[in-house]
Design brief:
By secondary structure, this protein is of the alpha+beta class. It has 4 helices and 6 strands; from the N terminus they run H-E-E-H-H-E-E-E-E-H. Helices cover 15% and strands 27% of the residues. Strands 1-2-3 form a 3-stranded antiparallel beta sheet, covered by helices on one side. A hairpin with a 2-residue loop joins strand 1 and strand 2. The mean pLDDT is 94.
Length: 149
């Protein structure tokens, strides 16, 4: 299996600054807000544009992008290979939410296989962006554990 390329990860809108380009795929964002907490001067939902990578060092921006559990954010550092996957693939079920996966991923989508390094996969069955989670589980009241009553 090969690792994802820049073309694989460069999905969504690009925000460029010296040394880095950040990509944001709004359809995959679940508003976990790890980016906002990590670098509020770069990721500010009240500002336009809301991503301003020039407001921090490129390596700091990349480190915060890697905390995005859904894969809505990716980055490419100038003159370097694409974001590298974690060595060990992990799957973490979110309580009453998606499966958060990290690693060297190949995801079967309606548009074909997609290589990625992070993703939030639907497990309620109601997402309109399958196989990715779109937050519909909260709207339909889906629970990951059966009601004990």
């Amino acid at each position: 299996m090969t690792t994802p390329t820049t073309e694989d990860l460069a999905q969504g809108k690009a925000y460029t600054a010296p040394g880095i380009t950040v990509y944001y795929d709004a359809r995959r964002c679940l508003h976990v807000a790890s980016c906002v907490r990590g670098l509020p001067g770069v990721f500010d939902p009240a500002a336009r544009p809301w991503i301003r990578p020039a407001n921090a060092e490129a390596d700091a921006v990349a480190a915060v992008v890697r905390t995005c559990p859904t894969g809505a954010l990716h980055y490419v550092l100038e003159g370097q290979e694409a974001e590298m996957p974690d060595e060990i693939t992990t799957i973490t079920p979110s309580p009453d939410g998606p499966l958060m996966i990290r690693g060297n991923l190949v995801i079967d989508t309606p548009g074909g296989e997609k290589k990625d390094v992070r993703a939030a996969l639907c497990r309620c069955g109601h997402s309109s962006n399958k196989p990715y989670c779109d937050g519909t589980h909260a709207k339909v009241g889906w629970k990951s554990t059966p009601d004990p009553s």
